[in-house]
Amino acid sequence: MSQPLTTRPTVAGISIFPFRQPPPLCAFLFIIVLIVATFYTLHHPNITPPLLFSRNSHNALRLHRLFLSSASNATISSYLHALTRHPHLAGTKPSLDTLHYVLNHFQSLGLETHIAEYEALLSYPTHISVTARFSNTTTLEFDLNDVPGDSSVSPVVRPYHAYSPSGSAQGNVVFVNHGEEGDYRALESIGVSVRGCVVLVRKGESLGRGGIVKIAETKGALGVLIYAENDGGGFGGIERGTVMRGIGDPVSPGWPGVVGGEKLSLDDDLVTRRFPKIPSLPLSLHNAEIILASLGGAKAPVEWGNLGRVGSGQRVGPGRTVINMTYQGEMKMKKIQNVVVTIRGSEEADRYVILGNHRDAWTYGAVDPNSGTSALLDISRRFALLLKSGWRPRRTILLCSWDAEEFGMIGSTEWIEENVLNLGASAVAYLNVDCAVQGSGFFAGATPQLDGLLVDALKLVQDPDVVGLTVEETFKSQNSIIQRLSRVDSDFSGFLHHAGIPSIDMYYGADYPVYHTAFDSYDWMIHHADPLFHRHVAMAGIWGLLGILLADEPLIPFDYISYAEQLQAHRDTLSKLLEGKVSVNPLSMAIQEFSLVAKEAADEAKKLKEQAYNKNDVAAAAKRRELNDRLMLVERGFLDADGIKGKEWFKHLVYGPAAELESKLGFFPGIADAIAMDASEGIIEHEIWRVARAIQRASKALKGGFT
Fold first, then answer.
1. Which helix or strand (DSSP H or E) is residue 46 part of?
2. Which of 17, 32, 74, 578 has the smallest number of Cβ neighbours within 10 A?
3. How confident is the model at residue 23 (pLDDT cuts 50, 70, 90)?
4. Transferrin receptor-like dimerisation domain: from which residue to which, for each copy (predicted)?
């Protein structure tokens, strides 16, 4: 049974202590600061309060403590409860209620807020059905709902795959495990073909829905049914999702889908290539197990190893079980709205630190994404309190609430495409939180120059589950590592892979059983993931601190020595994979140069830090600005105008999605694709040279000047 949320002392009705035991000195100091700022504002309404946080290490530490002490688990809980009162699928009327809630929250805090609106092609179901005919001639029409009671009056959208083509498929069933290329090869080795069949897939970790359907299509399958083994946490949930290839609005590929702008027709080749050619649907575990139990034919290939709940003796078909599946959907042009808050910087207002989360959800979205939305709303509340007490960030901070992420990161992608030049010239970093809390344990992915900063932030935040330890201490004790961001599953993708913006993505909990089901609700959150909202508080603390550190530090806290070491590790892994068949010397030379330049930049930064900070020292300010520009632009060097072959919108040659689903590396996507395709040594060598040139561009950006 969950404990009630704890009661905390409040200022103006807002709880100020996020921890089990409040830190008295820090909290009372914050109360005094707020009282002083409030009275000053009352008597001088047109004048900003005196700057109580001058830029030195002592005051910076005090600012960080005050930010943390103003957290409130009860307040975050109230935000999440309001956000999840109804489903809010992008493009639907309830999604406008969520939009207005977020917009009104920001505006009520006195923050500069605007809406960036776009038009995008979204996909909705009108009819779905799956019927099985078994060997004994009996038939069964499956229940395709995961909503208790009468689904016809439920506001929750029926389980479907967005952008699946409308149509029916009828055929014998073949179980294809995770639906990867290797799974089909294993079936072929025992004489099983899927041509003319409906394939049943248990969703794995390495291949997304779109990839599953794409491979099945190439193998001659007529339709695809996908189920997840987690069974919606035992509730019978069914996982919704998109099967569109690529990200962003499909009818404005490569340019922003602004209202009244150019839109391609649905039969344009650039549009049709984004969609599958065969229908697919999600299925519950219960229904999948009924089909699996009916299959005849050969036993599952030994290469598949552990089949989880399926069992090693599973038959794969095709037997006499026949599936008839139908999906009817409609494509609609819908307006989508991003909400953007601007907190103007005091000294470098033309440099931007961006915090982002999407707010649209397949159903109620308590975990995905509104645990992150509620954290973002609380960060904005805390920033507003700091602003009232006299703080202003050195650089401008943007708080972004994206729309239509679930359909393929559409809201953030359109915004990036509209602002790509300005982002390239002035964006310092992008900090993404999608699902803030899924369960226990902190997880993060980042570009390597941000590793040290992330660890520093973790050291300042109390662990929500272990009293007396910081998040950094528990993160380290669990032997957790900071992952790299080659995946394409949240809004950081466009920032990093297309625009070359250093990025972080963070979340609590490795996964959760109600993902994209009707059971992703506030009730599930308070009973299973975060009853007292301590993990939400911790995530908001880490996220907000990272924003403050990146916005306030006179020198941008990027560590390119760390990046150089990571590149060297990638080079070593690649070398072992190639087994000497292709030379990696171009990479070695480029990384060696990058390492030397990174060391020089670190030495330069150290000397500047040793100088006493003086806002009025014009010469020192110019030196910092020049170094900051170089630090900021390095990541752009890894972009290549031609992009990744087969996925040309993705430009990053170090971290990005491989076009070949069989690629074995989590980095150097162009090289990984060439290896996966068994390309000639010359093609692999060319891809190695492309990456080497990208690293050389990054070195030149960090060094500055011209050859």
1. none
2. 32
3. very low
4. 582-703
Amino acid letter, residue 206? S
Token pair 């990005």: residue: 656
Whether 373 and 83 have beta carbons less than 8 Å apart is answered as yes
Q: Which two tokens stand for residue 189?
A: 């080795």
Kind and range of the H or E run holding 312: none
CA distances from 702 to 482, 594, 691 (A): 24, 9, 17
Cβ burial of 164 (10 Å; 0-12, 13-18, 19+) is buried
User: Which sign does the torsion angle of CA 62, 63, 64, 65 carry?
Assistant: positive
pLDDT band (50, 70, 90) for residue 684: very high
For 284-321, what is each residue's pLDDT tens digit? 999 999 999 999 999 999 999 888 788 778 999 998 99
Q: Is the pLDDT of residue 71 over 80?
A: yes
What pTM was estimated for this model as a whole?
0.92
Is residue 170 classed as helix, strand or coil in its secondary structure?
A: strand
The pair phi, psi for residue 391, each rounded to 5°, is: -75, 140
Looking at residue 649, the DSSP 8-state letter turns out to be T
Tell me how crowded residue 40 is: count the other CB atoms within 10 A of its CB.
18
Question: pLDDT tens, 631-647?
Answer: 999 999 999 999 999 99
CB 146 within 8 A of CB 238: yes
Inter-residue contact 544 to 384 (CB < 8 Å): no
Token digits for 331? 């494509």
Q: What are phi and psi of 586, to 5 degrees?
A: -60, -40
**CB of 92 closer than 8 Å to CB of 359:** no
Burial of 43 (0-12, 13-18, 19+ CB in 10 A): exposed
| Res 183 pLDDT > 70 | yes
The angle at the Cα of 54, spanning 49 to 57, to the nearest 5 degrees, equals: 145
Q: What is the mean pLDDT of residues 401-415?
A: 98
Residue 338 backbone dihedrals phi, psi, to 5 degrees: -95, 140
Instruction: Transcribe 638-674 into DSSP letters.
Output: GB-TT-BTTBTT--BSSSS--SSTT---SS-HHHHHH
- CA 668 to the chain's CA centroid: 20
DSSP H stretches of helix in 191-239 = 209-218
Long-range contacts of 562-565 (CB under 8 A, 24+ apart): 562/448, 562/449, 562/451, 562/452, 563/447, 563/448, 563/449, 563/594, 563/598, 563/634, 564/591, 564/594, 564/595, 564/598, 565/448, 565/595
Phi, psi angles (nearest 5°) of residue 142 = -75, 145
Tokens (6 digits) for 199: 């394939």
In this structure, are residues 594 and 637 in contact, taking their beta carbons and an 8 Å threshold? no
Whether pLDDT at 371 is above 50? yes
DSSP label at 197?
S
Q: Is the pLDDT assigned to residue 27 strictly greater than 70?
A: no
**Strand duo 139-141 + 112-133: pairing:** antiparallel
